[in-house]
Amino acid sequence: MVDRFVCLSLSFLAALLVGFTQPAAAFEKFTAHGGPIKGLATSVDGRQLVSTSFDYTAVLWSLPDMAEKVQLVGHDAAVNTAAFSPDGRWLATGGDDNQILLWSLTDIRAGRPPVPQKLVGHTAKVVHLAFSPDSQLLASSSWDRSTGLWSVATGRSVGYLREHLSPVNASVFADSGRQIFTAGGDGHIRVWDVSRQKYLRSVVRNGFGINVMAIDEALDVLAFGSADGRMRSESLSGNGPAIDYVIDGAPVLSIAIDRAAERIAFGDSEGRILVADASIGEVDRDFRAVKGPVFSLQFAEQASQIVLAGLDDWVTRITFETFTPPDWMAIDGARRFHPDAELDNGASQFARKCSVCHSLDQSQKRRAGPTLFGVFGRKAGTLPGYPYSEALLTLDLVWSEHTIDALFRDGPDVVTPGSKMPVQRIKQQKDREDLIRFLRSVTMARTE
Asked: Are 79 and 141 in contact (CB under 8 A)?
């Protein structure tokens, strides 16, 4: 196997620098969530896109118009990933609640209320999903160090593949579904015999954890991105080149391949997107799209567009024909959940600890948690319209300065055990006092 490191040509680099001096082209933004978007997936026919979010929901969009069609509610925590079945019948979502939900696209298209089937068995978050080519099996990658195999027909587990020494971040079927490749935080990509659920060999030993992986057998490509910033592809057959697009940098968080256009794309934790020819490795574009992570990206419209998601509550679409790489120094870093503006300590605590899940606006919807509008004096679990957990519905607790202080001092697992609220604490008493003072002033101002 021939190793190749791809460098930007002088002509391409010159064009890139010229692009940086031009005004940044406006990206199309589509909002349907109330929290950062963690995952994207496109259907096989290219007519549907799904986005998954920290707000506990998934949203189904139509393409190419990017019209929101259905909001899918069912997870009890952030939704990390989704996958469409090749036969167009199913959509699977997986999340921080350790669950996989299987949604019938037939029911959704018919206008029937979407009621998912729950696939339960993992003991840690599910971060990646993939269907077998015949749509009969679903593979789930989990931080419990296993890949789960599920019968789509019955919704039951048919086994777990356990060989990785750390979280499994991706699992992809190959060889007409007879094999599966799994990538993990231990730096290995391992190959398994699916029917025997037998570990065969390790085909990649990267040294650093592998965060994302994609395979296209028609292009003879196995590609991955790692925690040390490596963006690399190898020949599945061993007869083609191994290409290092980038050998070190920020952690790589997303990857996509378009077979028809023979294009590959990577996104990293600092907003960098690299697009290249998947066969020969020539780099088409290398730019910084946002200040912050690119959690997920997908090609669209025969790879003439790229759709990306990250630490915002909108999906961004870039059309390459009219796209000018933005001046990365001039990219607006302000965002709802991590504002650039200087804040006092109380507002800063709210922005960092609360704003992703909660709003202060009575009309604000689609957050993972209920609005904090009028929270002081309100009994826990009583805000109309919010789907509280049973634990909170039966809790005898009224929100006050004392109970909010206890919530962040002792943690939700102590004060609101069994609720959906992520476990987090604020150690310093002054930080808790400043947060409570901020909440008191803002909620009083908004309720007067």
From this structure: no
At 380, which amino acid appears?
A
The CATH number of 2-330 is: 2.130.10.10
Per-residue pLDDT of 302-360, as tens digits, reads 999 999 998 888 899 999 888 777 665 555 555 565 555 667 888 888 877 787 788 88
The rounded distance, in Å, linking the Cα atoms of 18 and 11 is: 11
User: 232-256 as b/e, with b when 16 or more CB fall inside 10 Å?
Assistant: bbbbbeeebebbbbbeebbbbbbbb
Match 């005004």 to its residue by tokens.
23
Average pLDDT, the chain: 87
Asked if the peptide bond before residue 36 counts as cis, ω within 30 degrees of 0, the response is: no
**Can you say how many angstroms the Cα of residue 144 is from the centroid of all Cα atoms in its chain?**
18
Sort 116 into a burial class: Cβ within 10 Å, 0-12 / 13-18 / 19+.
buried
Alpha carbon 89 to chain centroid, angstroms: 22
Torsion, Cα 208 209 211 217, to 10 degrees, reads 80
Q: Domain spans of the chain?
A: 2-330, 345-447
Give the residue among 56, 61, 71, 70 at the shortest CA–CA distance from 28. Answer: 61
Angstrom distance (rounded) from CA 268 to CA 380: 39
Distance CA 228, CA 219 (A): 26
Tens of pLDDT along 99-126? Answer: 999 999 999 999 998 999 999 999 999 9
Write the class of the CATH domain 345-447. mainly alpha
Kind of pairing, strands 99-104 and 90-95?
antiparallel
Phi-psi region of 383 (alpha: psi -120 to 50; beta: other; left: phi over 0): beta
Domains 2-330 and 345-447 are alike in CATH topology? no
Q: Are 356 and 36 in contact (CB under 8 A)?
A: yes
CB atoms < 10 A from the CB of 102, how many? 18
Alpha carbon distance 177, 138 (integer Å): 11
Number of H helices and E strands in the chain, helices first, is 7, 29
